[in-house]
Specification:
By secondary structure, the chain is an all-alpha fold. The protein contains 8 helices and 2 strands, in the order ααααααββαα. The radius of gyration is 27 Å and the shape is elongated.
Length: 165
Amino acid sequence: DPAFKQAIQATDDEKKRVWDSVPSPNKRFHYRYTAADLMWQCAAQLPKNDPLSLRALYWGGTYLKLRDPEAADRFYKAMVMRNWSMPFAQQANKLHWFPIEEPDEMGKAIPVPKEEESVSSDGSEGSDQMTAPESSDTSGEATAQDSGTQESSEGTDNGTAEQTN
């Protein structure tokens, strides 16, 4: 139908807006490249051997290192060259890549907890597991949170609770 084709056809202005809004770089996860570039600019404003410069370069490279190691390489090299007197950069130099640990505010490595420590013998997560707080109310009365759910479920046809704000 010609009328339908004309109705859905984009105007020149619409086409221009679409092309103007194409992400740069036009890659998957383009926002990681944008964030990395911002970290690069941040590091460029900071002095050499500064913990913030080290962290900016570390995080900029970390955003890219798994998906695009070639793009992350400039961050690794700059992190080592600009922060040569910092232990974290020295560790990165020995590894020839980014350490697994993160740098803290002083440019020292934050230890990563070992997997064995965070998993109990039955395979469940240890202290990282979130549990519901135990209630000390034994009167059997509903709490304010429960009563809000109960009130919102009244009047529903299927008996499911719908929470309203």
